[in-house]
Amino acid sequence: MSMGGIGGIGAIDGGRIEAMIAQLKAAAAKPGGGVEAGAPAQPAGKVDFADALKASLEQVSANQIEAGELGKRFTAGDNAVSLSDAMIAMQKASIGFQATVQVRNKLVSAYHEIMNMQV
């Protein structure tokens, strides 16, 4: 996967944001997608943003933990883990984290714009 599509440090294009939103919707649409036992059922087709965001953050965290474990196993000399597997997992975790930071930045920016609106 090439990093050439990123214009600069911290820059993210609209296509990546749309892809992340699609992933959030897909994660939220999974059966049991973040709905806890005993929680009221929501109508089909309605996506709760908080649940989608939580699922996305949990996935990013899981990717970071997996990358760390693969890195430790490779460093310890585990023959089942190749350098390319460890590096790819680390890059996936890094890209996921960067995308999450960009989403957070957009949310904070939107919050500030809403708070500065005249009522």
UniProtKB/TrEMBL annotation:
NCBIfam families: fliE. Pfam families: FliE (PF02049). Keywords: Bacterial flagellum, Cell projection, Cilium, Flagellum. It comes from the Bacteria. The gene is fliE. One of its GO terms (molecular function) is structural molecule activity. One of its GO terms (cellular component) is bacterial-type flagellum basal body. Belongs to the FliE family. It is found in: Bacterial flagellum basal body. InterPro entries: FliE (IPR001624). This is Flagellar hook-basal body complex protein FliE. The keyword GTP-binding does not apply. GO terms for biological process: bacterial-type flagellum-dependent cell motility.
